[in-house]
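batch job 7 of whatever, protein = Apple domain-containing protein
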Amino acid sequence: GQSMGDHTERYYSLSECKAFCDDVLGCNSFAYFRGDCHLKDRCVHKGEPAQQKNGWRTYFKTCTPQAFAYERLGPGYCSHGYYAGGNPRDAVSLARCQARCSSEPRCEFIALRLGDTCSRYSSKAGDCKTRPMGQQDHVAYRRIAR
């Protein structure tokens, strides 16, 4: 797989390495050895042989590639069901925000404020039809299976 970033500046714990991978969109696995952490995009599926080279161990997320489409609901953001957002890196484009939502099983709605936040909402948002807040600067979308 392609490299998604290396963390070798100091000793990193295994949990820190996992957190790095969780924070990078498209990171599906990482190699870890003696505090060094290499993030990767390769999906590893259950049943594939585990790889260990010279002490390096590769850890992976279960990859279930499923494409979603998004329906534009209009201005504003959902009144309920917010669970994550606020990372400007996820808000650089609509495609990036949608990809973040698609990678999270509980994500059912997004509200994008371009360049600022990609807010994600769970089923607790209901149908997200009432959106009195964020009318000027957020646009909401509903995730639908393709």
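notes: The radius of gyration is 18 Å.
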